Amino acid sequence: MSEYALPCIICGTPLRNALRGDVDNQPLDGVCCLTHGNYGSTVFDSFNGEFLEFNICDPCLVGAGAEGRVWIARERRPVTTEGILIGNERVPYLPVPWREGMAPDRDILDLDSDELDNPPSTIHLTIPIEMVKQMLTEE
Asked: What is the pTM of this model?
């Protein structure tokens, strides 16, 4: 534990931890990144659960985004019914260029209460259907 997080991997700027106490790497004015590597890398492709951790300071991230070198995608979208978050749905991987100030993707799947009896197979529910129905009847 240190007052400092890892420095920026691009410019080397020292980054302080945003939180005090039992924190190892929570950069203030930066982003902590993790990678398990990938097929194709000749230097890192973990098969044993190891990962690399590095930080990018906000100015380097914003600059790389402005140059089209950072992309954003999502793996899943929230699933709700009558305003209650009940799970998530896997969505296709469709990366797009990221830039500072981009509006977040607010797409959600909102199920009608009658759709709870036979939800789509693409959905992972985090709350049992019986509990959701009980919550809806209590409102």
From this structure: 0.80
